[in-house]
Design goal:
The protein is an all-alpha fold. The chain has 2 domains: 117 residues; 126 residues, no CATH class. Helix 6 packs antiparallel against helix 7 and helix 9 crosses helix 10. It starts with 6 loop residues before the first helix and ends with a helix.
């Protein structure tokens, strides 16, 4: 039964519907359940957020989004850093290629290169925090030594831009990295120090039960190919059946309880058919009847 599934099983069962490209495509191709997919994603994220192993090691959707954005900003930061370094080197070579060569200008290229890249391009292999700190240093350098900015402005870049414009774009990416690093640190701290409350777990389980039950119900009415329906529905039904047997074997004499989602964990057993208390009245009637025949 669905209500006997644990959080890990609930995460594993919805993960293919959400994360596997082929199963997601198949889910969206079945008209009776396609519109439910956004709610499936929400339910999956809800149980993922309260999953103990998830909170201990795997990323939450919000944290994953920050990491993905950081990766993209870091990629652009590295390309811009290389563009600045290579731009200075290219200008230096052009100065030396003149007849006569402009050795003074080439030497100025060397000096600025060392100021911007004291460790060469190793900065692009550093941590994002180090990259952000480096761009802060360069921004301060441009403020303290205007001659460096003027020199960079004199070197043409792509289109009508100068190499100084490229440097400014590079520094902007450094500021973005700093902002993202701060957001990541704050979110990680919040997620690792705030344990999921029982109320949160109950809400996540309840949300999961409702949407999965609705998907299964709609699949009963679907005219999609049987194979497609089985791919979506089969793992859930089999896992649910195993969970029900596991629960029955672990608590054979347990009284009726409610699980975390507020759903009765077992069906009432041992009660006679009919209205509540009917069995008791029946026994009393039998005693009266026997008493009357004495």
């Amino acid at each position: 039964m669905l209500k006997h599934l644990n959080i890990d099983e609930m995460v594993a069962l919805l993960s293919p519907w959400v994360e596997d490209p082929e199963q997601r495509r198949l889910f969206l191709a079945i008209p009776e359940i396609a519109a439910l997919h956004p709610r499936v994603v929400e339910a999956h994220e809800a149980v993922l957020a309260v999953q103990p192993s998830s909170r201990g090691g795997r990323m939450s959707p919000k944290l994953r989004a920050i990491f993905d954005e950081t990766s993209e900003v870091d990629r652009r930061h590295d390309h811009l850093a290389r563009a600045v370094s290579y731009g200075i080197d290219a200008h230096r070579e052009l100065c030396l290629a003149e007849a006569p060569s402009d050795a003074a200008r080439a030497a100025q290229c060397d000096a600025v290169q060392k100021q911007l890249f004291p460790g060469g391009l190793s900065i692009v292999n550093a941590s994002t925090l180090a990259e952000a700190g480096n761009t802060t240093r360069i921004a301060r350098l441009l403020e303290d030594e205007p001659a460096v900015g003027n020199f960079l402005r004199s070197i043409p870049a792509h289109g009508k831009a100068s190499l100084l414009d490229v440097v400014k774009r590079w520094l902007a990416k450094g500021r973005e990295l700093q902002t993202l690093e701060r957001a990541r640190a704050e979110l990680e701290a919040a997620e690792t120090t705030a344990p999921a409350s029982k109320t949160t777990i109950q809400a996540a389980r309840s949300q999961w039960f409702k949407i999965v039950a609705l998907v299964l119900s709609n699949l009963e009415l679907s005219r999609a190919p049987a194979r497609d329906i089985e791919i979506i529905r089969g793992p859930v039904l089999r896992a649910s059946s195993r969970a029900g047997k596991r629960y029955a074997n672990s608590k054979p004499q347990a009284p009726q309880e409610e699980d975390d989602a507020g759903i009765p964990a077992t069906e009432p057993s041992g009660a006679p058919q009919g209205e509540p208390g009917e069995g008791a009245h029946g026994d009393a009637s039998a005693l009266v009847s026997r008493g009357g025949t004495r």
